[in-house]
Task: structure prediction
Amino acid sequence: GETAPDEGDVRNAMDKCRLGLKSEVTIESAPEGAAVSLDDPTKVLGQTPYSTKLEPGDYVVYLAAEGYRPFERRISVKAGEPLKLVFKLEEIVNAGTIRIQSNIRGASIFIDGQNVGLTPYDQPITLAAGPHQVILQKDDYQSVNQSVTVEQGAEVAVEASLFLTESPATWKKHLGW
Result:
């Protein structure tokens, strides 16, 4: 049949109803200023704190900030229900580890001048990436001093052999036993 004379009015009323279904969505982050994307991480919509109105449905929120790990979370928006999301971004730690092995028990371990513990030290030690000074000391033994460079995400093995400063007294002479 023919189109109704009030078709335009009905369509406008339907569009208004659809607008009423959109929900207010607020996205915040710690730290603020993270780039916000929905469903496509390459299309940045704004920075946190960010507010928008979304139709009901499922979305994927992407947050990105320099010095922090990229963040991705699936959310569900319901009709007429406002949604406030607060996310804490994880800082990228520029660190690596070192593992210390020694031939002597009870030697003091110093890293960058700070006492870490005694040998044997089985756990890896987490340090900021870059150069570090490792010293192992024990009374009556020659200390070991090494410079190591720790790289992000890598483990450096430090093997230190300590030797007595004076040889132990024996009854062995140049003539034999």
Observations:
- The chain has a mean pLDDT of 85.
- The two ends are 125 Å apart (CA to CA).
- The first strand starts at residue 23 and ends at 30.
- The longest helix spans residues 7-21.
